[in-house]
Amino acid sequence: MSASLFAWIKAFHIIFMVCWFAGIFYLPRLFVNHAMDQSEPLNSRLCLMERKLYRFITPFAILTVLLGLWLLAANSAYYLSSGWMHAKLALVALLAVYHVVCGRIVRQFATGDNSRSHVFYRWFNELAVIVLFGSVILVVVRPF
Fold first, then answer.
1. What are the φ and ψ backbone dihedral angles of 121, each rounded to 5 degrees?
2. What is the rounded CA–CA span in Å between residue 93 and residue 60?
3. pLDDT attached to residue 140
4. Number of CB atoms found within 10 A of residue 76's CB
5. What is the pTM of this model?
6. Which residue among 29, 76, 88, 93 is the one 20 to 30 A from 128 at the CA level?
7. Cα gap 131→109, rounded to integer Å
């Protein structure tokens, strides 16, 4: 792969990752508000917002992963022999699971099955922050 193509793929990988994280940070904040107030007008509005946001960020998640795999395949001998990349891939897998769990929570709120408090969602929101910090540090510092 040419250096120019690699740079374009990396740029779009980062752009899609930023878009994914923007949504994955905001969605649990909606869950906090939803868990705090279940009044009908607000409940309907938050359900709509949660569903639309989840559907909006899912393609960014998919594109982030696909472009990341393309970058990985471009130099797999180096990346797969690097400890930092193994740790980063583990964090990406954790974020993908987090994304799926967010989708389940969206459906729970939509069906009125939420049983968790706003405090739980405040803590839940911090998981994505930890993944972001870890991923960026691993890619930039490459500590292993």
1. -70, -30
2. 15
3. 95
4. 12
5. 0.94
6. 76
7. 25
- Residue 60: helix, strand or coil by DSSP? helix
Instruction: Note whether 117 and 34 are within 8 A (CB).
Output: no
42-101 per-position pLDDT tens digit = 999 999 999 999 999 999 999 999 999 999 999 999 999 999 999 999 999 999 999 999
| Those residues with Cβ within 8 angstroms of residue 117's Cβ, 6 or more apart along the chain or in another chain | 35
- Whole-number mean pLDDT of the chain? 96
**Which tokens sit at 131?**
């993944």
Q: 114 pLDDT exceeds 90?
A: yes
The single-letter code of the amino acid at 50 is E
Distance CA 12, CA 68 (A): 10
Structure tokens given for 94: 């954790």
Helices within the chain (DSSP H only): 3-36, 40-74, 76-79, 83-111, 118-141
Higher pLDDT, 37 or 70: 70
**What is the rounded CA–CA span in Å between residue 104 and residue 113?**
11
